[in-house]
Amino acid sequence: MGKFLTEDQALEMIRAWDGFGELEKKSKVKNVSVKPLSIDDQGFLSIVYDVVVNFEDSSKFVVIIKTPSLNRFNEELKADVTDKDKDGIMFQCHNHECEVYTLLSSIDAPMAKLYACKTISSADKNGYLVMESFIGKANIMGISYHTNAGQCLNLARKLGKLRAEAEKLDLDKLKHLNAGFIQENDFVAGLIKPNIQFMLEYDYNTFKPLVDRLEKYGNSKFYEYCLMTKAHDLGVASFFHSDLHGGNLMFKLNPDGSVSNELAALIDFQSAIYGNALCDLSRFTGVTVDVDVRRSIEDDLIDAYYSTYLQYSKNPNPNFTKAVCRELYDLGVILQAVDWQMIFGIFASKPTGKNDFHNEALKARMALKARLCMEDGIRLIEKYAFDKLQNKLGNLTL
Known about the structure:
This protein is an alpha+beta fold and 398 residues long. It has 2 domains: 1-133, Phosphorylase Kinase, domain 1; 138-397, Aminoglycoside 3'-phosphotransferase, Chain: A, domain 2 (Alpha-Beta Complex), CATH 3.90.1200. It has helices at residues 7-14, 20-26, 71-76, 83-104, 149-166, 171-176, 181-190, 192-202, 204-214, 220-233, 278-287, 291-312, 322-348, 356-383, 390-393, and strands at 29-36, 46-55, 60-68, 114-118, 128-132, 138-140, 238-240, 249-253, 259-266, 273-275. The strands form 3 sheets. It has a 5-stranded antiparallel sheet with strand order 1-2-3-5-4, sandwiched between helices. A 3-stranded antiparallel sheet has the order 6-8-9. Helix 8 packs antiparallel against helix 9 (204-214) and helix 9 (204-214) packs parallel to helix 14 (356-383). The chain starts with 6 loop residues before the first helix and ends in a 5-residue tail after the last helix. The relative contact order is 0.12. The mean pLDDT is 90. This is CHK kinase-like domain-containing protein. Residues 129-315 form the CHK kinase-like domain. It comes from Bursaphelenchus okinawaensis. InterPro entries: CHK_kinase-like, Dhs-27, Kinase-like_dom_sf, Oxido-Kinase-like_Enzymes.
């Protein structure tokens, strides 16, 4: 496909949607514009494009096209991963996302409409997803965005409803989502050690004691326990996104262009699985939300999530009590504490401020989020006596 998508390639992908033929019957295509949207024109495992089809009658059809790519992955992520393994991760993530969008299209899920998709293989890497566009209608909530309590509470309600909606899905198809879990999380865990240095270089005295407590949890066995094992053991596994930081969701814009409290869609389902769905809420609050906001509303978030689930579920799972809901959320907070050892290095090493003073402020704000989340994670590790999990977690040395 080349490094970037051409106009002809984009039009061919859009024509894979049956409904586009009806549009072409009304008017001929005049031209197509293609604009990369990802940071530096490249995402870590994909490139996202804003594509506009202009018709001769002056009407337009606007979509997002997402194609798999390792360009930025190769340039920026510091991980000991072979080319074969990187291809495997890219194949897994793209094909998985195609599977998830297709699966969720049968329920009322907060996601963009899927028009067409194509999976990839070693023989044909020209895969894609063609989706509804929210450009000019909604904003992502990046790591530097100041998220408010209302947005958090509305997200909690949407996730509670999604949990209820997911009960309508075929159980075997949900379980199949976990097929690539081990490969992907071995990769994620492998990113922690090479990124810890950035945290220690920023503030050694503050972060060294926290890293000493948390670094040993950065392995795939622990990820599996928090994301999957515990929820399955309790009989409360559910569909979830699994990487729901602010860059993977969008809130609607008000008429004046400001960001509202209303969720538009979750995006980037490359790692969605069947397990501890409360990790979605803790991922968002632990990474994106300022810690003073997070700590002030966590009880309210659990209430909002749980009550909304009960409201929409036709047959609520009796094992999913409010206490279980809180425990699963807490496991997610612990996971975010571990993840900050990786996240700080990835984002703080290349801040996106307008000048050096702005970058300094962004790093300081990120460091505060990291420190307090790591402290919360250690407190919860002690609360749930994780030192007793040695046998269950296998290779975890405690």
